[in-house]
Prior knowledge:
5-stranded antiparallel beta sheet, 3-stranded antiparallel beta sheet, alpha+beta
Amino acid sequence: MITQRLQTELEQAGLQASLLVRDLNTGHEIGIDPDTEYATASLVKIPLALATLERLHQGELDGTTPVRVEPGGPTTGPIGLGRFRHPATVAVDDLLYLAMCLSDNVAADTLFDLTPPARTTDVLRAHGIHGITVRHRVRDLNETPAERLAPDETHLAHTLAIQAASAGRGHRIPQLDVTRANSGSARAHVDLLQALWKPTTIHPDTAARLRSLMADNVIRHRLAPEFSTDASTWSSKTGSVLNHRHEVGVVEHRGGEAYAIAALTASSVPARHQPAAEALIGRAARTLRDHLRAT
């Protein structure tokens, strides 16, 4: 069976994986352990964007409102406002762009200051999404062992991340403990994508804006190589922390087909950069999509 073969390939590469592909037009789906929960890292920015956009639509927030962002705060990141040396003033609308399209952690936490994690979870529940829970701001992701080590010692943090997990999905590192971290399953994220691409309770304008933000995502090294073509559009969000590598998105074909895809993974290889693993995750997702498309 194709799912068993792919699961074996992933395990041989040191990857524990939860994948789900759903045809958004028919509801047919195929997956590998789609209900297993993972700490979701920057995938949390999708629910955050949804909650923010809903408040904009309802008039509780104004997208043109300027927000002052000070440098040197508790949230950092490889790109974006966390690298700024001087105060900046950014409109709420532009914070949404930075958080979703560049995965800017400071922008995301500035939005969380406006719409806290608990309220973000409430928005998900209001739309029937029960498998994703938002518990903390992004800044908490920056307090892992990796941030306390020199760049040439990050493999030690990955070793701890691998060895400190429990059979019950708990973890000695809080950012990877599904009972304490932002968490969700592949199925829940596909449900969220379906709610955005086939909106019933989400306002169409809100859903369209979030789809547009995901289409403009510039981080495209994981699943995008398998789904971006001249005849299709790939809209997505990635999430990475320590040994966890995720991406969720929708591929839309010129003929009208649309497939929601979620890939949540954890590596047992203690290395920060794993291009072969990234490629395998994309190839496994593509294989599942192709199989579903052919049946």
